[in-house]
Amino acid sequence: xxxxxxxxxxxxxxxxxxxxxxxxxxxxxxxxxxxxxxxxxxxxxxxxxxxxxxxxxxxxxxxxxxxxxxxxxxxxxxxx
Length: 80
Prior knowledge:
With 80 residues, this protein is mostly helical. It has helices at 4-14, 27-47, 53-76. The longest helix has 24 residues, at 53-76. This is Dolichyl-diphosphooligosaccharide-protein glycosyltransferase subunit OST5.
C-alpha cells in the first residue's frame, strides 16, 4: 500500500474550506432543542417503562441527548 495517494488526498483537502452541516449561529438553538426533546422523551419513558417503548421512546431520547450535548459543546465552546 502506497502512502502517496493519502498524501495527495491530504493536500487536495487543504485547499477546500470546511463547511459544517449546521452553522455556528444555529448550533445553540439546535442543541437546546435536542436536549429539551430528550428530557421530554426520557420523562415519558420513565412514567411508562416497557419493552415496547424502548425502541420508540428511549432510543430517540438517548440519541437526542447525545447529539444535543455535542451541539451545545460546539455552540458554547470549551475553554481551558
